[in-house]
Amino acid sequence: MNRIIALSVLTLISIRAFAQWVSPSESRSFTLSYLSEAAPEVVEKIGSTFIVKQDITISSTDTLLFASSDSCVNVYPEVKIEIIGTLFSEERATPFKMFGLTTPEDEYFEVRFDSSAGSVMKKVDIENCRRIFLINSDVRFSECEFHGFSSHVISYMNCSPAIEHCNFHDNAACAIQSAINTEGSPKILYNRMYNNVLANTNNPQINIGPSANDTVLIVGNTIEGLASTMSGGIGISNLYNPNTTLVVVRDNIVKCNRYGFTQNGYRISSWITDNQFIYNNLEVNPNNGGSGISIFGYDATCASTIRRNLITGNLWGITAIYYSNIDLGTEDDPGRNLIYDNANSGVEYALFNNSNSDIEAVGNYWGYDNASDVENVIYHQADSNIYGLVNYLPFNVITPEITSFSFKAADNSSISQDAYGEFLYSANYDTIYVQVNCSSDQGCTYLRPEITAPAGVMVSPSSGELVNFASPVVFTATTPHQTSKDYVVVVDFRTSVLDVRKDGLIEVYPNPVAGGFINIYNRQDSEYRCEIVCQDGRVVGEHEVLPGMNRTAVNHLAPGLYVLRFYTPEGLFEKTIIIK
Q1: Are 447 and 470 contacting, i.e. CB atoms less than 8 angstroms apart?
Q2: Which of 34, 52, 406, 539 is the most buried (most CB within 10 A)?
Q3: Which fold, 506-579?
Q4: What is the secondary structure of 477-536 as a DSSP string?
Q5: What are 34-43's pLDDT values in tens digits?
Q6: What is the pLDDT of residues 432-448, one digit of tens each?
């Protein structure tokens, strides 16, 4: 529909007067419906769509209201919507759409906030806009979508906007940008940014200058490049401001950019914790970028505390340039960062201390389990006396473990309740026993497990993968330095009616066995022969199963997984038990 309207109104662009409508500053609220009736030369209504044809200025004390009943507004090229008063978008079920009508020779429309107080833009989808420019305006953006912008999407000066749960994608420049000589402490929370900086202008998707008195928060965002080889992740700079810039970067996923995070200049204190900086390797020249984290200090006031981050798949893991004041971990507060498989030109670089400052980096994992291999991927004073020393001892080693295994009913419609694995340990491999209650007698052997493992450990088959558990399945946990361990997962299926497939004949309990005896209840009149088979296939016990209750000692057997093999007139069937 937008395209049809565009064709109908673009023929009018050449004859429109470059005028504007200014609200009277009388503490009034104006809707698009009101403007279309009071000033149709400014806002025209065609069907359910509004068309803004001239500049609009909302004066101080007045409000522009995007009513919940409004669905779409198209805006002529070069139009400016300026909010000096307040813009407010009412609660709505579906986004309010703003679409810029443009031709290749025209400039997109612009939204400008100047000394605006209390403006809220919520659930607004803006396409084909030049930029949203904030001056002294702490605007709150929530659940918005921004795409097709010809410049930086949100640019701010001397203010601290809140930007949360928004999508920024397919824009020519940065998602969020501030001037380098102004102050601001934005709160950038839980947004998704991808395929921005399409003009290849060598900018990060979040490009922040000096902070104000408050701390800049960049938390919970996903920032992905791919479409632009010059698109960076997050950039923080303080080149002129005499005050210290405070930054928290936490719980973000920054991937497939030219670099992950960079800070440069003076008087910056950053806390970089619990992020993933992965596969930021789009830079074709490693001398120009490709770091998971880069700290470029003009003096030692450029400081960073780095904890519990995953840094892998980049051209460089962490680079320290010129001066630095980097804390990667101390004996009292280990770093617990995972830094591995960062390489270029066939050489692995976990940390390159290209500065003359020493770095404390205790308690991190560097991709290896021995000191000589770790030393080989850290470049510092041991390689050249022009570099500072990196103290990386002691370092962490990852073990190939599965820490929990379960089936969640929310992920598996065939089971009636969550089921949790019980671990039985052995020297060669571990067994995970799970008792599953099927929601129907048709069975539920195909299930999606939920698996947790230490950060950096890969498990195959993976968490969430559909697997047939009709027979025991081997899961392998593998570390980045290629040590591995196998876990045999045994699932004991029970239906809502019977214990197992043949429990109309026989019931076995308790399971797992903790008291040295198992009870076998034979519901039939005939006798059965039962063998107890251990994991290597040996028969370690044999019993006759009489009609009724049978009590069998198993206290002579070592803890582990066993199979009870029953020979009945109806055929052979097996029951898996766990002996603790």
Answers
A1: no
A2: 52
A3: Immunoglobulin-like (2.60.40)
A4: EE-TT--EEEEEEEEEEE-SSSSSTTTTTEEEESSSB-SSEEEEEE-SSS-EEEEEE-TT
A5: 999 999 999 9
A6: 888 888 876 556 889 99
